[in-house]
Amino acid sequence: MKIYKVGDEKRAACEVCQSFQTVSFQLRDVPFSDGSGLVKNVVVGVCKTCDSVALLPFQSVPAVKKQLETQRKAVESRVPAHMIDILNLASAKLGATPEFIPLLMKYYIHMLATHPVAAVQLVQLLTSELATGLANKRISLKGREIHNDINELKSLSQISNTTELLKGVVLAINNDVLINPDKQRIAHLKSLVATVA
Description:
Layout: E1 9-14, E2 19-31, E3 38-47, E4 53-55, H1 61-72, E5 75-80, H2 81-93, H3 101-113, H4 116-125, E6 135-141, H5 146-157, H6 162-179, H7 183-196
Antiparallel strand pairs: 1-2, 2-3, 3-4, 5-6
């Protein structure tokens, strides 16, 4: 395996130019092709004709894998058992099985992260008696955007603790689906259930 230094050059296929071009190895921030993230300051081959990234040398693959793993790392927390019961009941009301719970949670986290007024209301939900109890059940959420959505929701709601934030999300689901059914939201969620069933 050849190790390339910044400034080294070689010929490589450039997708933008649709031909073989001279590439120069440089440090660049490189976005993932699906737009889901960015690998910062990694050695890549840059086309000298169009200035686009034409080549990812083998030496840079571990840095890319590390960034991908970070994005896919699960968000995990422990919550009281009755909160899992709430999620099971909400899933059943939507016509789904318990396997729908992670998707339901991610939907709500994303929705709340894009609605500042709704996000602020999580603090009020955490003052209810349902927000208390021994944390003996685990919630695990995976996905490329979950970390970004949680960080955005923490900022909007001013809830810095991930466990408290997830408890607030569960209580928002409880309110919208079970206590004061939001017909429009329930219809949207039922459509989502139908697409993943």
